[in-house]
């Protein structure tokens, strides 16, 4: 089937995708969220073209407005560290020192080191997705992402992406929708 966004001819329901595995795949296959599971799509992509600018050049200019990046942040307060994930439009950056710090009630917030993000999520760097995150993590999602009819996010691996209705993101565990998370 043809994907609703991007230049992909190979979209399949993610729960049925042959090469889709890991924590994100487990979460998708157990999906009970606000949209039907068959609307969570998987597209196979070249891992060498996973970085945003190259990806858009190869898979469709419309993805500039419809793709989102999921990043891991570390917040500190009173000697305690909290890890969280943030999902913003790929053309924006996460407001770590403003929106994230306030939401997590942290004294300091920063991007988590790559090794930490990979180890804690069980996902590949460059493919981290809001699906299948550790159960106790807050997931901060910019309302601009959740308001999209369709959004492209990682699949947990550099190979492959998920295309989901923006409103599906509101059904993920521990989600907090924040206006202005991406600046």
TrEMBL record:
Cited CDD domains: PA2301
Source species taxonomy: Bacteria, Bacillati, Actinomycetota, Actinomycetes, Kitasatosporales
Top-rank lineage group of the source organism: Bacteria
Span of domain YbaK/aminoacyl-tRNA synthetase-associated: 47-169
Protein name: YbaK/EbsC family protein
An example molecular function term from Gene Ontology annotations: aminoacyl-tRNA deacylase activity
